[in-house]
Amino acid sequence: MASAVKGRAPRTRRADQAERTRRRIVDAATDLFTERGYSSTTIEAIAGRADVAVETVYSRFGSKANLLEAILEPAIVGRHDGGDLFDQPEIVEIRQCVDQNRQVRLLAHFSRGILERTYTAHRILASAAPSDPNAAALQRRDTERRCDGQRVYIDMLLSNGPLRDGLAPEDAALTYSALSNPSTFGFLIERGWTADRFERWLRDSLTRLLLR
Fold it and tell me: The CATH number of the domain where 45 resides is what?
């Protein structure tokens, strides 16, 4: 038994060291993409900022687009240890809520949190997509995933009653997507709105446009 415990410890230390190195590379990429721009940032520069070999960056990530995905993904979920967005406690609360108006308030808060956390990553992604096909593909996947998730939000509302008269679920989901997306959030934040003000606007807009 003692030898088995002793055998596990080095692997744990190695895993911890590997995670610290990965996070250092991701943090360096985030800083450089923000400071210099995506196109002007090289893998060599990222390696230098992270104090690792260039080969280490390539072996871990392979490309700048993969680094960008590593920046975006944990920001969406709000944690670095993986997990599905729809397993979050906030979503569980929204599913269990039986009042549509309260569901909308909770959804507006949840969406605000995602957009606030991913603001920097989405700005980098928007600048990267025109010049990098892999970044453009990431942007398309991100958009489709967000729209699919927002369609699920509408299903949550429908579980507690109908939508506004004449509003099809597909159109309700598109309405949600038009209001709650990185472009709209960035447009308003960059013109002086706070995240709190965005959340209130999103809540009020969704209530008026989706509910009876």
Answer: 1.10.10.60
